[in-house]
Design a protein that fits this description.
The complex is a heterodimer of chains A (161) and B (81). Chain A is of the alpha+beta class. Helix content of chain A is 32%, strand content 16%. Chain B has three helices and five strands. The chains are: A alpha+beta (161), B alpha/beta (81). Chains A and B meet through loops of A and helix 2 of B.
């Protein structure tokens, strides 16, 4: 077993884990943060994207021990319970950027990282290119792209990062 | 994934010592090639040596007239630099 301490959604977490525990397993099974999904489990689909020190990573291909001493943010950490949604979440709701919703947490975490890196005025081409690592099997990507463009703009006027 | 022992050296010297001591160890940095292979049980290293916490190994800097990109610099960091 390995001792790890990390910050998850702003809260300090200490745990003893088997070194082969994946970060996504740790989040879902130990911390019961089941908003982060396991889709393909082969780092292709992006349903498991979380932020590690502010950068999007696929948590099915990260060991929990690798997050020791770091800061993790999951979909649950974007906006407080009961508080208004994060602008990117709100944009997905408003623009119908989901059908079944399975890929949505990963889409949104990727989108927020994209805005941090590429700014608030995103062309459709940029968004489509950046969504290379996120698969949605319900929709065309049309509404997802629209949601991200709108969410990116809305984030410019929001306190929520 | 098969069991392994996880090591997290803080210096290149520590990492080198670990690799000498454990001949069948694998080094891991980001893990995006090694971990999927381990998950499918195509690889089963008994030791993993994590290089991601060795300070300076991921730096991108000008040294004289040379641009030096550290071995663990992320693609994203290189692209953004």
């Amino acid at each position: 077993m390995a001792k790890i301490s990390l910050i998850v959604n702003g809260n300090p977490v200490n745990a003893n884990v088997d070194p082969r525990t994946l970060l996504v397993q740790f989040l879902r099974e130990n911390l019961r943060l089941t908003g982060t999904h396991v889709g393909c489990d082969t780092s292709q689909c992006g349903a498991c994207v979380v932020h590690l020190d502010g950068k999007a990573v696929k948590s099915c291909t990260t060991l929990a021990v690798m997050a020791d001493g770091h800061e993790v943010k999951t979909i649950e950490g974007l906006a407080a319970d009961g508080a208004p949604l994060h602008p990117m979440q709100e944009a997905f709701r408003e623009h119908h950027g989901l059908q079944c919703g399975f890929c949505t947490p990963g889409m949104i975490m990727t989108a927020v990282d994209l805005v941090h890196r590429r700014g608030h005025d995103l062309s459709d081409h940029t968004i489509r290119e950046e969504l290379e690592g996120n698969l949605c099997r319900c929709t065309g990507y049309q509404n997802i792209v629209q949601s991200i463009a709108a969410g990116a703009k809305a984030m410019a006027n929001s306190d929520l990062a | 994934m098969y069991e392994f022992k996880y090591h997290r050296p803080a210096t290149v010297r520590q990492a080198a010592n670990l690799l000498v001591k454990n001949e069948d160890a694998k080094v891991i940095a980001g893990g995006h090639t090694l971990l999927p292979v381990m998950k499918q049980r195509l690889a089963s290293p008994p030791h993993l040596v994590d290089l991601s916490h060795i300070a300076g190994l991921g730096d991108i800097e000008m040294k004289g007239r040379s641009l030096v990109i550290g071995a663990t610099a992320r693609h994203a960091d290189v692209a953004a630099s």
